[in-house]
Amino acid sequence: MKKEQVVHCQFSVWYPIFKKHTIKSLVLPLPQNVIDYLLDDGTLVVSGSDHNSQPIQTSDAEEDIQWSDDETTATATAPEFPEFTSAVLEAINALGGRVFPKLNWSAPRDANWIALNSSLQCCSLSDIFLLFKSSDFITHDLTQPFLQCSDQDSPDPVISYELVLRKWSELIPGGEFRCFVKENKLIAISQRDYTQYYQHILKQEEQISQAIQEFFSQHVQYNFLDEDFVFDVYRDSQGRVWLIDLNPFGEVTDSLLFSWDELMSGGETAYQQQEGPAFRYTTSEVTVQPSPCLSYRIPRDFVDLSTGEDAFKLVDFLKLKKSQQEESEEEENPTQ
Ligand SMILES: Nc1ncnc2c1ncn2[C@@H]1O[C@H](COP(=O)(O)OP(=O)(O)OP(=O)(O)O)[C@@H](O)[C@H]1O
Ligand SMILES: [Mg+2]
Question: Environment class of residue 298 by beta-carbon count within 10 Å: exposed (0-12), middle (13-18) or buried (19+)?
Fold first, then answer.
């Protein structure tokens, strides 16, 4: 995979080509001070000036807490990006009030657990910042987009970072498929949410494969800037196929139910012997696996405690702390 292929898969590059066949979206340039804020590990303070949503909840006791024991340390203040904030709010409103956020390539899929609604649905800039700042995928886009490219000796292309806002759409995971294109030929299709078994895929295998092949030959083939790429589609309940995303043909892109070796090899692989693309999906409950993003989470108890969502857990936690404290005091004063 070459750096140029990664450049071509940026949202703002492919979107104008395939606009008619994908979810309505708006792209806003990301100012440098916002990029700096996203990369700064220290601040997760979000400005209350974005009126679309409630400010992040703080505890009643907050005023009593001394965050700093050093008088000279500046208090953490929320950075303000007034112009950017109003541009984002305007875009969110134009897209119906609820959006799915991305950067040039990635969505913060690894961070949905941190949001109060456990979803990537955002209604304000603070919703977006919370997800972006918690996501390794977003950091990858910002810091090392060309990590796995084969032409490492060539200079990195200059990237203009962008915030992509897509109209929120309730996509049923069983309708999502990833399609691998090599030399402008559709060679393989994989169920996207391969950890689950969907009966309808088994039942409609032929129709699904046919619909995706038609969509490819009518709208995608020869229209993109590369001849090797991966595109994601959604087949809705009416059987209509939509484009969801374009990704580089290479290891940065998850090959799902295929392996990159088989996709790249010119050898005698299953898909070359048959007419159409190889179509793989999970065929039974037995193979169901946990979601791949689970490893990015922290234990549920931590989340509940930190957000104060589960009062009983908090009470138990405080009791535990108290009894530990008493135990250690007893150890220090064994005579008591
Ligand atoms: N507009 C939308 N509204 C709601 N959900 C969406 C929307 N767009 C995408 N999704 C959901 O989010 C998932 C990830 O979206 P997308 O493919 O754009 O992210 P990505 O970061 O490019 O993922 P990958 O790393 O796998 O390429 C999709 O599989 C889909 O389930
Ligand atoms: Mg993608």
Answer: exposed
